[in-house]
Design goal:
This protein is mainly α and 244 residues long. It is built from ten helices and no strands. It has helices spanning 10-43, 57-73, 78-84, 88-112, 117-134, 149-158, 160-180, 186-199, 201-224, 229-243. It is globular, with a radius of gyration of 20 Å.
Length: 244
């Protein structure tokens, strides 16, 4: 939606929305399968005791976060179109709303009922709020189902290398946690997760700026003036690398 020449075509965006919703359904189903598999492994004593994988609370977390991703996948595609058009008001409003609602619900829930469910309640409620408002005050866009198998295949084919790179990036960034969950109990793994989050705050800031500001601007420049993209890219990259 952000980079493609057809990103301003409403029919094209509707197809992308269907692909994204399908992805959310697949993610939610995979989360259920993972939870079921972990449950069977715990029941059969195939996981090492006193590790995160042996913690029964893990099953509920996986299911709830899979549901949160399903809800998020139903957001109006107009939120991504706002990034394409660098509509920063809409972008910032959606991001602030998600963070404020998610953090607020998590804190209040944890205060009333300390436990792991509080960690999942925030993303669930925040994604639901942003999804509902994405069809109202955030974008004011009417929507309806669009079933175009050929268009869906075209969108999926166009993003094949993004899929490969995303999978590899996820494996690289998550391998440590997946492995350490078999060595640490839930408390030690939680401490590691908090430390990793604090240590990567600067990287996350750079990723946000690159993804929500630099990428849409360079995409628009590529469509309107391709000859200047290389110069603008390296000019922006120098500043980001100095900050990093």
């Amino acid at each position: 939606v952000i980079q493609a020449p057809r990103g301003d075509d409403i029919a094209y965006r509707r197809v992308v929305w269907m692909v994204n919703l399908f992805r959310g359904v697949v993610v939610a189903l995979l989360a259920l399968l993972v939870a079921a598999g972990l449950g069977l492994m715990q029941w059969a004593a195939l996981v090492t005791p006193d590790t995160a994988y042996a913690d029964p609370r893990l099953l509920l977390i996986v299911v709830l976060l899979g549901l949160a991703e399903l809800i998020k996948s139903a957001e109006s595609i107009e939120l991504l179109h706002a990034e394409r058009t660098t509509d920063f008001r809409t972008m910032v409003t959606a991001q602030v709303l998600r963070q404020a609602v998610g953090t607020g619900v998590t804190i209040v829930w944890a205060w009333l009922d300390p436990g792991v469910v509080a960690l999942c309640a925030g993303p669930l409620v925040a994604n639901a709020a942003v999804t509902l408002l994405s069809y109202g005050t955030l974008t004011r866009g009417r929507w309806h189902w669009t079933w175009q198998p050929s268009g869906m295949l075209a969108v999926a084919f166009a993003g094949r290398w993004l899929l490969v790179s995303s999978v590899l990036t996820f494996m690289i960034n998550s391998f440590d946690k997946v492995y350490l969950a078999s060595q640490f109990d839930a408390s030690r793994l939680g401490l590691y997760g908090i430390a990793a989050t604090l240590g990567l705050l600067a990287q996350e800031l750079v990723n946000r700026i690159s993804g929500t500001v630099l990428f849409p601007v360079l995409s628009e420049r590529h469509r309107e003036s391709p000859a200047t993209v290389r110069r603008d890219f390296y000019a922006a990259r120098r500043g980001i690398e100095l900050f990093s």
